[in-house]
Amino acid sequence: MAREDIGDLIAKLGAEIGFPDLALDEGGFVAIVNDDTTVLNIDYYEEEQAIVMYATVAELTDETRFDIYEEMLMANFMWKETLGATLCISPTTEHALLMASIETDDLDYQTFSKFYQNVHRLTWAFSDRFKKIAGDESADEERVEDPASHPTAPLPSSFA
Question: What is the pTM of this model?
Fold first, then answer.
């Protein structure tokens, strides 16, 4: 799929979530920050014909590392709880990430939008789950069920 077509999908998604100017930067990247400061990153890899979405779902500390690792391994088992996404550890930071990719060959908007919504929901779910492990009571706050109706804002690539 051509970069221009991916740009159209991103723009349509932006319009759906209230940001009609949402667009990939020159490097094929855009980030969306939720009102709860969760950042969902979107990278387009033109040569590989893939879009990768990823978000930090936990900061690892000495106190939480083992419990979060254990939860990640159980959730990743046969993608039981991740719907095909992967929970992983950043090799450069002390963060747990949720990552998912989708091929862009013949990618239509309905499929792309559903992919975004699933990654968004999973990001919320695992972020909340890992906050509970860390003893953060904000994980008990109620979430809006539909990510498209949840206030979001594009994050300039220079801040991601």
Answer: 0.84
